[in-house]
């Protein structure tokens, strides 16, 4: 029965600048407390404390960082506070929670493992088991059609990216989506790399399998993630974990070692009856553990705290007035030292050697004009929508794999233009042989009589491109079978986008080693370096307007980065495909390894071509627009309230 006593008011204290997920939890706690007959609300600004108030800090460490420690350092308030935490015991955040836990009236955590660690530190922590709550329920027992086969949601860490790269084949061969967030600063709301609220629950409900990988090596069970999946009918495939009760392997979800994850995922997706049983069992389990039981336990502790404090009336406000921002210093603003000077000198020497080799190896009698070396019979039969352009230089062992990846994918409305930049191995002959075996593929092979470098080769290939869209593929990389199809779909879904790119699987001689291109289009990131590879699908007209790739020697190896910066500088944007579309070969001779000896000259050149972007002026414009929209929304809400009151009074 709901508790009708009103000698307690539960106030869940939130920072305005914290992660949106904790706002969801706060709303669930308030909703359940209200159902139990206890007044409760969420407080995110000024707090007027009353004698019956007991406060919940959710989560403790995050509030302290974002708003200051007034609830935590003032003993009159600290003993009226319950801290709810959800941090892994191996993290620095957990250590912060331990520090404040000794000051608070009580501590709760969603993990039994964390509760044991708190108790070992002398804190009488309690377990708050998260269970079924009606506001999160999206389960449909009759749902058969799902938009996605595989979904991953979580912050990006090297460990997670490495594990996801290992299941790359399952991701690109299925309908998959990777939503990797950046936890360097709080994700305060819904955006391309972070989903929350109703959109997240709809996404889970439309997914067959939710893949879960731990942030760190500790086998910490993400209980809240499992609960969310059970509410919505997504089957959770998780890395092996400890303290998973009441969830059990192969009854409510599936656990697997990382090494077996690809096989476990494939087996799960190929067994619809097993999927159906797991999702039903998980939902029935969560219904057997209502969240109201945990909130009742929380309220019992809150009542005890209410009896022990003397009911001070205080007025408190947040100490922070501006949102927390990730503090990153652009490379060009950092102090340089002697090592930086040596690196820059090495880079200049290396570029001088490249230029010298070109001059020495070039016969003055040779005409440097590019020539069409070979064409397949299919070239003149049609004009495809996509032109795949490839610069080739001494990649004889890899070029056939690159060509095959483009020609044998699920998207066939394409042509291929290869520019051989005067290779001195068997690359040219290898391409010609492949063309002779693939007469049905429209291919043109252009040869540079003298070596001219990567940007000129790409620009030359672009000059021959007839397609509406241009896909850039390096001759030692590969596009996955579904990659082009998904990139084209992304461009079609966002007609204003200048180009589309997606997640890339990094690999070396040992196999998959990580991911690239995980972040969506966020121009501010370009100020600090490149996060988008050259492997992208660009509109022909956009590349033409930008006049192709730069020939500035200072940007050797950074030509694609500078191009993306110019897209941002001109007000353009890109569409992002949140799954693996290509494979990037990582080796000692890859462009990624050879161009970053020194970044000073490169950043200088980008600052010259993109002054507004690199100065942060574009970010200021976005911030100003956001502030203006916030004011407009506030004024509109105030107007709606006034209008409602007026209508009520004059009804």
TrEMBL record:
Organism name: Lentzea xinjiangensis
SUPFAM superfamilies: Nucleotide-diphospho-sugar transferases
Gene3D superfamilies documented for this protein: Spore Coat Polysaccharide Biosynthesis Protein SpsA, Chain A
Spore protein YkvP/CgeB glycosyl transferase-like domain mapped to chain residues: 190-294
Keywords in alphabetical order: Transferase
PANTHER family: GLYCOSYLTRANSFERASE, GLYCOSYLTRANSFERASE 2-LIKE DOMAIN-CONTAINING PROTEIN
Pfam family, one: Glycos_transf_2
Transferase as UniProt keyword: yes
InterPro entries: Glyco_trans_2-like, Glycosyltransf_2, Nucleotide-diphossugar_trans, YkvP/CgeB_Glyco_trans-like
Any one GO molecular-function label of the UniProt entry: transferase activity
Protein name per its UniProtKB record: Glycosyl transferases group 1
Residue span(s) of domain Glycosyltransferase 2-like: 387-518
């Amino acid at each position: 029965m709901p508790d009708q006593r009103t000698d307690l008011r539960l106030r869940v204290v939130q920072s305005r600048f914290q992660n949106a997920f904790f706002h969801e939890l706060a709303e669930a706690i308030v909703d359940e407390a209200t159902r139990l007959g206890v007044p409760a609300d969420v407080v995110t600004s000024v707090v007027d404390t009353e004698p019956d108030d007991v406060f919940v800090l959710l989560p403790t460490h995050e509030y302290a960082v974002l708003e200051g420690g007034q609830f935590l350092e003032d003993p009159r308030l600290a003993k009226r506070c319950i801290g709810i935490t959800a941090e892994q015991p191996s993290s620095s955040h957990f250590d912060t929670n331990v520090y404040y836990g000794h000051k608070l009236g009580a501590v709760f955590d969603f993990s039994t493992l964390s509760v044991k660690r708190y108790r070992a530190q002398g804190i009488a922590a309690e377990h708050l088991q998260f269970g079924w709550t009606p506001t999160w329920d999206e389960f449909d027992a009759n749902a058969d059609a799902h938009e996605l086969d595989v979904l991953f949601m979580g912050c990006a860490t090297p460990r997670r990216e490495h594990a996801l790269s290992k299941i790359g084949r399952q991701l690109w061969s299925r309908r998959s989506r990777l939503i990797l967030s950046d936890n360097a600063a709080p994700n305060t709301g819904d955006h391309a790399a972070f989903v929350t609220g109703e959109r997240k629950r709809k996404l889970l409900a439309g997914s067959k399998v939710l893949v879960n990988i731990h942030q760190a090596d500790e086998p910490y069970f993400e209980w809240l993630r499992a609960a969310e999946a059970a509410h919505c009918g997504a089957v959770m495939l998780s890395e092996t974990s400890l303290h998973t009760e009441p969830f059990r392997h192969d009854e409510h979800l599936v656990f697997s070692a990382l090494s077996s994850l690809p096989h476990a995922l494939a087996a799960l997706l190929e067994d619809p009856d097993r999927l159906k049983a797991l999702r039903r069992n998980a939902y029935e389990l969560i219904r057997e553990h209502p969240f109201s039981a945990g909130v009742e336990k929380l309220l019992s502790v809150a009542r005890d705290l209410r009896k022990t404090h003397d009911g001070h009336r205080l007025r408190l406000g947040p100490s922070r007035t501006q949102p927390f921002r990730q503090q990153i210093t652009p490379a060009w603003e950092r102090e340089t030292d002697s090592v930086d000077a040596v690196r820059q000198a090495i880079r200049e020497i290396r570029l001088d050697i490249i230029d010298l080799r070109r001059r020495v190896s070039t016969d003055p009698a040779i005409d440097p004009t590019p020539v069409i070396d070979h064409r397949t019979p299919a070239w003149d039969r049609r004009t495809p929508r996509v032109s795949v352009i490839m610069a080739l230089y001494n990649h004889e062992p890899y070029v056939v794999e690159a060509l095959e990846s483009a020609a044998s994918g699920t998207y066939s409305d394409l042509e291929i233009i290869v520019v051989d930049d005067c290779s001195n191995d068997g690359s040219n002959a290898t391409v010609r042989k492949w063309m002779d075996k693939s007469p049905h593929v429209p291919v043109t092979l252009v040869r540079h009589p003298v070596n001219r470098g990567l940007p000129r080769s790409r620009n030359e290939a672009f000059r021959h491109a007839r397609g509406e869209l241009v896909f850039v593929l390096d001759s030692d990389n590969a596009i996955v079978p579904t990659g082009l199809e998904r990139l084209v779909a992304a461009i079609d879904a966002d007609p204003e986008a200048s180009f589309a790119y997606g997640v890339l699987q990094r690999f070396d001689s040992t196999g998959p080693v990580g991911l690239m291109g995980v972040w969506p289009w966020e121009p501010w990131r370009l100020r600090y370096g490149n996060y988008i590879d050259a492997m992208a699908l660009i509109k022909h007209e956009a590349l033409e307007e930008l006049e192709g790739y730069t020939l500035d020697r200072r940007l050797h190896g950074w030509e694609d980065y500078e191009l993306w910066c110019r897209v941002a500088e001109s007000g353009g944007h890109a569409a992002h495909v949140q799954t693996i579309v290509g494979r990037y070969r990582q080796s000692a001779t890859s462009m990624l390894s050879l161009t970053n000896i020194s970044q000073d000259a490169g950043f200088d050149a980008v600052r010259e071509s993109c002054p507004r972007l690199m100065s942060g002026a574009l970010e200021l414009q976005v911030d100003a627009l956001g502030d203006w929209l916030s004011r407009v929304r506030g004024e509109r809400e105030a107007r709606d309230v006034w209008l409602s009151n007026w209508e009520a009074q004059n009804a």
